Amino acid sequence: MASLALSSLILLSLLQILPCLSAANISVGSSLSTTSDNSSWLSPSGDFAFGFRHLNNSDLFLLAIWFNKIPEKTIVWYADGDNPAPRGSKVVLTTDGLSLKDPRGQTIWSASPSTRVADEAAMLDTGNFVLIGNGSNYVWQSFENPRDTILPTQRLDLGSMLVSKVTETNFSKGRFELHLMNGSLVLNPVAWPTRFNYKPYYNSNTYSVNSSESGHQLVFNESADIYIVKANGEIVQLPSGNELANPRADYYFRATLDFDGVFTEYARAKNPDDNQRWRPLRVVPENMCLAMFHDIGRGGCGFNSYCSIENRNFSCDCPPGYVFVDPNNRFSDCRPTFRQGCGGDDASRDPEELYEIREFNNVNWPLGDYERLEPYNQTMCEKNCLHDCSCAVAIFDGAGCWKKKLPLSNGRSIATGFSKALFKVRKGNSPDFAANSGGNKGISPLLGALLLGGSVFFNFLLLVAFCLIVFVLPKRKYGNDNFQDSSNSESNLRFFTYNELNEATDYFKEELGRGSFGTVYKGVLRTGSRNAIAVKKLDKLAQEREREFKTEVSAIGRTHHKNLVQLLGYCDEGANRLLVYEFMSNGTLANLLFALPRPDWNLRVRISLEIARGLVYLHEECSVLVIHCDIKPQNILLDQYFIAKISDFGLSKLLLSDQSRTRTMIRGTRGYVAPEWFKNVAVSAKVDVYSYGVMLLEIICCRRNVEMEIEEERRAILTDWTYDCYVERRLDVLVNEDEMAMADKCRLQKWLMVAIWCIQEDPSKRPTMKTVLNMLEGYLEVPEPPCLSSFSIAVES
Questions:
Q1: Residue 758 is part of which domain span?
Q2: N or C: which terminus of the chain has fewer CB atoms within 10 Å of its end residue's CB?
Q3: What residues are labeled active site?
């Protein structure tokens, strides 16, 4: 067995160092562009291609390697799935390596040999793209920088990893990682969207205290066999797979860490006319539903869903009364289709009038119980859950009743044993109703019935009348008196009348909060989706501030990002100025952060990253660049899943695409305002970086940036105290002995360093939000921050 392993390794080594004379080598100076017809470099056989792939339904491209001769054009490697290239981007081969640049010439991604010069490049028939230096040596190769896939003749050394995609079509880093570490092959779920690893759900257990008996490499050999080689040459096979009917030479092979977390070896017939698709040969782990079992995290499927397996393939489904958050992704979380809890008028009504129990057999969520009642019969279990505001589902096993809150994790179907899941759902609601109640899409049922039931002439008259009512009359009614510029039509904002919003808010009855521009009220749309909304009623604006309202409407209407609160519409009728936003059911970050008990560390980590992503979008990615100018926890709102979204663009200062600085009056909130606001100088997006740094410290410490009532004077100003704690290495004091934060001490220290960089008084020393995000996510090292000191700014002419 050892001699077989040695022979395989020798052959693999020879394949790796073969000269590239047979390849159509690519010379220095060559380039590919997203706008060119010649958008790929082929391997000699044409089996593989390197170049740009257009991402569906977008103007973005992926620099990638793919199987070129099959209809699927399956991608096996890509440069950077988190940052696809916009149209007009170009990849250039220079002596310094490969460089991918956007239309403005900014580097998106690069592959640079550390010490040697690249003389040429080649796309090999193995699927390996290489940069070639002096003496035909490979100075960089895609095989040593894998993404989610490995190919025959490829091997992973200790320290190597694969990262799954988010979904089948989203190439951003996903929820699972494969590592060859400490002598073992392990598969880990991560606390997505962070890269924090949970405990493994698969371990090859090939580690040994004797280093010669530990795993050394994961090999995918030329015969498409996959195994672990120990340092002493011993081979450890991965779980066996299915056999092929034809010779292996007739197939392409790949092994991919799929977006669902299963490491799968696939085979596909090379014949392009063959109707077959990629066929799984072996899967690791063999039963994902049983393998994934952790006290934190989603499990194999999303939150509130459950996992089932058939013929070694697993799938995810939602329980009764729930639907997928993303209907196109069955591995996303499930959400209830009804309002939960005992808030509002529900508290005064009998829960049994509002809710009912739907029984669901042979499914269980084995973790997350908050109460166990025993002995109990099923009727008692149902009644207890109905009358408990916190209870979302109860599991009854014939004698005991386990009550659970949302979110549910690690759900799975069970083939044996007695178990009933008793879901509490609101009466009169169903998943089908909720899934299809998305607003006024298409022709109304009444109009449809009329069109089908009348004569052709009558139908024609109805259509003409319908078009006049919907398209012509509103324009005539509001065309001269209201702000309806092209920017708003491009953003699909809806115009609301004042009466509509008056009725939706029940005459502005329920106040949600007050901001610098006015008051926010809760409302419910009376027509269409009947969704909850937040209406910001602006104070009467002076004539010179009319432009600011109109600018805000125009700017926000063109912003679309999952970490920005969505503007749905506006009212500009007479003296009334109102903005209509999506309703965020979990309030502000301030309410979460400064309350007891303090929020979970992993939740705080996720929220910090989401805010950073939203700011990166505002500063660098949206069509009209925006400085928010008032970043603080009160302006970060949380939806029903505690996803953080930046709100309140009323204080935004817009920049043209060729501007980076602007002069304006002092804006913002005490404690979060950058020092340059108080100088007669131009400010930049770095003012948001400063505010984010202060807020990041608040998120880390779960306390406000200024607390004068604290007895210990040096702790009153958070920025000063945290810097002192950093210098003294007293992180435990900083987080008040938070066990989860201290268990993540490496991240805690790095994030504290990032925050200190953000709050440097000299804005030139502060990183951009893009750099901040890369440091938080671990893609960039965090250098030692300088001490906090004053500075002077030269006044620009």
A1: 589-776
A2: C
A3: 630
